[in-house]
Every structure is written in structure tokens, then in C-alpha cells.
Specification:
152 residues; mainly alpha; 50% helix; Four Helix Bundle (Hemerythrin (Met), subunit A)
């Protein structure tokens, strides 16, 4: 299974992000490409503790749904609700300059995947505590989901 801890998979995601254009149209949802870059960055920052995010979890989310989302080889559903702190138009970071937002996301991914971490993993707001491998799998799946949203 693909996960961001694998340098080849990380390069794949970075290459797809580099192909993203501000003019790309979503296949679903309301986000613009710039908003998606900020949403991904905010989500990685939630994992590292740089952006506090409110929990919305319970035993089913922390066990069955977590296992299913991270292990079953199906694309994540479209238009799933997200936490307000990372949702565009609510508490998510608004986009500024597209190229700068992309560069910040790429730097965040580099930090997220670095072997020399300067942070401790924070619980996922829905899935609860996660291992490093869980975070790397989630990091890939989340980026892949939104890149597919824009045909990348």
C-alpha cells in the first residue's frame, strides 16, 4: 500500500502537486486548487500539532472506520465533511499566492515525512491516536483524494 514514508510515493505526490494549475476545475466539491493546497497544509499541520483541530471521534471511528479508511483499497468518498478548523470558508487558512501556497505545502510534506521530526504526532480528529505508518498512509490517501478531485 502506498504511504508517504516511501520516497518514491512522496515524489509521486510532489510531481502531481507540481502539475496542479490555478485554473484546474474540481470534478467534485467546491474548493479551488489554491484552497485545496491550503486545506492539505492545514491537515498536515493538525497531525504535527501546529494547527489545533477539534475532535469528532468515538469507538467506531477510532477502530473500524479508521481501519477501513487506511487499509481497504477503495477511493475515499467524495464530499465528506471535514473539521471546521481545516475547512475552507470556515477555519481553514485562506489561499494567498498559488505558487507560494504550493511551496509551503511541499515544505510541510517534507517536514511531515522527515526522519528527523521536530514534532510529536497528535491524534487524528476522527481516527484518534495513529502510528507513524498510519499517518504516512493517511498522508498519501488524503493528498491522492484531493489531487484526484482536480484530475491530477
Amino acid at each position: 500500500m502506498k504511504e508517504l514514508g516511501n520516497p518514491e510515493v512522496q515524489r509521486e505526490i510532489v510531481s502531481r502537486l507540481v502539475l496542479l494549475k490555478p485554473s484546474d476545475r474540481p470534478r467534485w466539491g467546491r474548493m479551488t486548487p489554491g484552497e485545496m493546497l491550503c486545506h492539505l497544509r492545514d491537515s498536515y499541520h493538525a497531525a504535527t500539532g501546529d494547527k489545533p483541530v477539534s475532535p469528532a471521534t468515538g469507538p467506531v471511528q477510532r477502530t473500524f472506520i479508521k481501519w477501513f479508511a487506511l487499509n481497504v483499497p477503495l477511493h475515499w468518498p467524495r464530499n465528506m465533511p471535514t473539521r471546521p478548523e481545516v475547512e475552507q470558508g470556515k477555519g481553514g487558512t485562506p489561499p494567498a499566492a498559488f505558487d507560494a501556497d504550493r511551496a509551503q505545502l511541499l515544505a510541510t510534506i517534507e517536514r511531515f515525512t522527515s526522519a528527523q521530526r521536530d514534532f510529536a504526532w497528535h491524534p487524528h480528529p476522527i481516527f484518534g491516536p495513529m502510528t507513524e505508518l498510519d499517518w504516512m498512509r493517511w498522508g498519501y490517501l488524503h493528498a491522492d483524494h484531493h489531487l484526484r478531485q482536480f484530475g491530477r
